[in-house]
Amino acid sequence: MQTYDAPLRDMRFVLHELHGLDALTSLPAFADLNAETVDVVLEEAARIATEVLLPLNASGDIEGCVVENGVVRTPKGFRAAYDTFREGGWNALAGDPTYGGQGLPESVNKLVEEMICGANLSFSLYPGLTHGAVQALAAHGSDELKDLYLPKMIDGIWSGSMCLTESQCGTDLGMLRTRAVPQDDGSYRLTGSKIFISAGEHDLTENIIHLVLARLPDAPPGIKGISLFLAPKFLPKADGSVGPRNGILCTGLEHKMGLKASATCQISFDDAQAWLVGTAHKGMQGMFTMMNEERLGVGIQGLGIASAAYQSAVAYAKDRLQGRSLSGTKRPDLAADPIIVHPDVRRMLMTMRTSAEGCRAVGIWVAQAVDLSKHAATEGERTAAADFVALMTPVVKALFTDLGFEAASLGVQVYGGHGYIREHGVEQYVRDARIAMLYEGTNGIQALDLVGRKMPAHMGRSLRRLFHPISDFIEAHRKDEAVAGMVEQLERAFGALQLATGQIAQSGLKDPEEAGAAATDYLRLLGLVAMGFMFVRAAGIAAERLATGTDEPEFYRAKLASAQFFIDRILPQATGLFLAIKSGKASTMALAEASF
Torsions phi, psi of 279, nearest 5? Predict the structure, then answer.
């Protein structure tokens, strides 16, 4: 049975103790924010997740979405759940107050997103795509477009989608064919077809606002000729209400292995009226604003799945009786011991647990930097935060989704044969989690982005935003008795990361394929070191709380146990990753194409 209770205590630990709100509450944008307010928001979000969204997860998977004559019907209960969600103000949580948003930090919003994803990943796509579209429109749209569309999108009465992919082009958007023809009234007419459009058509909102990549008649070839357009499903009237249907039609739904309650659409634009967002032929700037926001959101999807799979596996492992403990019977009153006594089951559960805790800690670190990149007092602080976000965005997207899928798979393994059948619900996590490694740029593309763009950017300036805090922490705590052993292991892994960075920088300059062959291993190496840094910091806080006295000793002892497991059993992968990187491209590229 699917089990999910929002991990509120660990969320509060990460937000208040590990990272702290002080860096944000000192800024005018968040001057009214305090820990009590944040905790109330998180508690109410947890209630919505467990009481409203979780009960629809399995049933939505079974029923799926249906399309009839271009109209998509979401599964039973989704419309009522969305109405409850919107009326509660959850769409507007991190929205700009200028347009009716509540203006809470992105670091708080990401924890709410985690709960939504953990309870019902399919549902999360509908408000999630809108959030990304709002960011792109806010950054690049004209005042007229923002005034007309943002209030309703932030409210959630209108939703958003992004329309990039076409049947002949995925990552290589320079090959897209959708055309935009300028009109005398300043609008444009779009003609073309898009595929894989999440939340592209549904029955949850009264209007859907599509952000569409297309080419103008005078567009240069390749991505330099792409422009971004806004095309609403229904054309707004002068008073802002919905008017006539635009030339936009859902021609089919993709038949997917998972996320069956999320409408993934094929969309046809037939002389659809649209408006330019940003500058002609500069559409990728606007789309990347949305894509980068979505990449962070997709990483949170991986975290949500990892947390839900872990909780479900723990519940089963405590209940399932099989065999006796290797160290002697633990439950003589029962016919067998619960499987949670077995070391290999513990290995799987602890791997899942630390994946979730580590991703949460890193994810909020990055989300807080998003807040600082927009609201910090000085340009230097904003730039430093933006550098860090740029570096870590591909890591959050790829590593979190890799670990989320691995956690879902381990969840099935804990259940054994019962995990492979639908009745227990954990196989759904595997199917749902798999797409997160693909959309918004496959994880291999994220790795190439990291080594090809982010690592060398500004002569390594972005890398320093990660390296310097880790190096400073190691130097300051290598003699800290409570965590000295962990610090030593972190230093060893950090050394492997530094050596790998130098290896790729040197070999990649001579041969780009060397960097390409190393990219995926390097991304995981960097991400594991970042998680290790978070765990050692968390261990230090937990040790201090236990030493000075706390009324929650069980929580802090568990945090120490998680940190020690990660440092002992997961972080040593850094050495193997470095050795793989050091081996170069030779064995990867040696086999002739015809021999595959």
Answer: -100, 145
